[in-house]
Amino acid sequence: MVDRTHTGKRCRTLQHLTTRDGVLRRDTYGKIRYETDNLDRRLVFVDWKNGMSTLVFAHEIELCMIEDRMAA
Per residue in 42-70, pLDDT tens? Predict the structure, then answer.
């Protein structure tokens, strides 16, 4: 089942990842498109800032928290 709860949220890689499209360096940023389960593993499809779009395991990324700053 496709889960779109985090669609559009920013994330970053926690480590270097080798994908079928190439290497994603640590701290590469992207936006989540959707999440899904496959063989009891959580997979996340991400559109990366470097132009790649690929699936990664959920434990290989973290969501980015954007600080709300109020103008003084």
Answer: 999 999 999 999 999 999 999 988 644 44
Question: pTM higher than 0.85, yes or no?
Answer: no
**Tokens 């360096």, located at residue:** 25
pLDDT, tens digit (0-9, with 9 covering 90-100), for 8-28: 999 999 999 998 889 999 999
Number of domains in the chain: 1
Residue 40 domain boundaries: 2-63
Q: In sequence order, what DSSP letters do the residues of the chain get, joined into one string? A: -EE-TTTT-EEEESS-EEETTEEEPTT-EEEEEEEEEETTEEEEEEEETTS-EEEEEGGGEEEPPPPP----
- Would residue 69 count as lying in a domain? no
CA distance 47 to 3: 16
User: What CATH number does residue 7 fall under?
Assistant: 2.30.30
